[in-house]
Amino acid sequence: MADKIVFGTDGWRGRIAEDYTFANLRRCAQGFADYLIGKGWQGEWVVVGHDKRFHSENFAVSVAEVLAANGLRVYLTQGATPTPVISFSVPNRKAVGAVNITASHNPATDNGFKVRDPNGGAIDPAGLKQIEALIPDDPKNVKRKSYQEAEAAGLIVKFDPAPAYIERVHDLLDLQPIKDAGLKVLVDPMWGNGAGWFPFLLAGGKTQVEEIHNYRNPIFPEMSRPEPIPPNVNVGLQQTVARGADVLVITDGDADRVGIGDENGNFIDQLRVFGLLAYYLLEVRGERGPIVKTLSTTSMLDKLGKLYNVPVHNTGVGFKYVAPMMMETQAMIGGEESGGYAFRGHVPERDGIVAGLYMLDMMVRTGRKPSQLLEALFAKVGAHYYDRIDRPFTGERQAREQAILDAKPATIGGVPVVNLDTTDGYKFNLADGGWLLIRFSGTEPIMRVYCETTDKERVKGILEDGMRVAGLA
Q: Is 392 within the bounds of a domain?
């Protein structure tokens, strides 16, 4: 019997050659095939794509072979493809779902198996549980048809997903003003799937786009992992100043998340980017509609919601919660603390390419550089400060969770605790509007301690108290 595979936020991730093996990957594919067939989708199309990690293209072929053997038909991307492009291809190709071979921002040792629904969005938690339960314990119960045989039978078809996605980008915004603006844009695709997209989309005008870390290197040099947060972005921030760029746009390994550096080489954290994107849609584009956010992201959105009279919906952490809420409410924007943002008129999925283009469009429409845009946002909602600490943990998770509940701190960072929200993790809301959140990662044996406050001097104290409450001090 093989080990049980447990799905996290988006699917399954594991360490290559340890638990992430071809045999275990095929088991996951069989579980997903049984899930789709159980919904009456025998013979329907499924999109399969991959990132630039070690062996990803071969892992993708293995998944396609299993799906084909189960009577499903597969659109297989012809090369490494950004996650948002794969997601968009699902409704565009009238497929019933997708499998994406990627570990997103995880270290180089890992790879993953992400699944998507017919809308191209994350499958809800109940659906993920169903897929997980259908994964066979014995690899012998996995069906498999060779790639050559499946391709010859028309069950696997390779395709280029780029043209249709690019057409959607042009529907969402006019790129010509950005091309004509004469900006100098530095892009860091973090050795991943975002490489080449911004130079291609913005070619043919006065704006210059330069890239770093833009070829395949699955060990991700100059960063610990392709996650668009410090210290992984430090080289890009240094190069922004050295090259005299107006902005740094960073996409993570699979290009569904975005990070931004300003013209001075300062990182604009992902909560502030979420605030800026919402401000752009509300103020600059004049759009109106609900905002969906995870409870781990910024309270600036609640303030913007009140200022512009739009509803704000809070969810658990992960797009498996954000995507369904976006579709239910026809939300204008949805996002999370990790730098993933989705937009109305597109797929209910994080898109680092569109988010980066929106930031550039905001600069062009307002005539402001990133630091000035941040000042404009703060003029509306006040300055907000955020930080996060990630730490591995040992011992039983249940015991650690009980210890957090038993702690019952009266104050955190010197500010009274108003209440405790246990929707997803342990969020201590503070009397001054700030908050502390302690969460267990859904994909790694890591505890995360986050905070946001309107007083920069309180950040350190809030995190220190949070580490003590989490038992990590």
A: yes
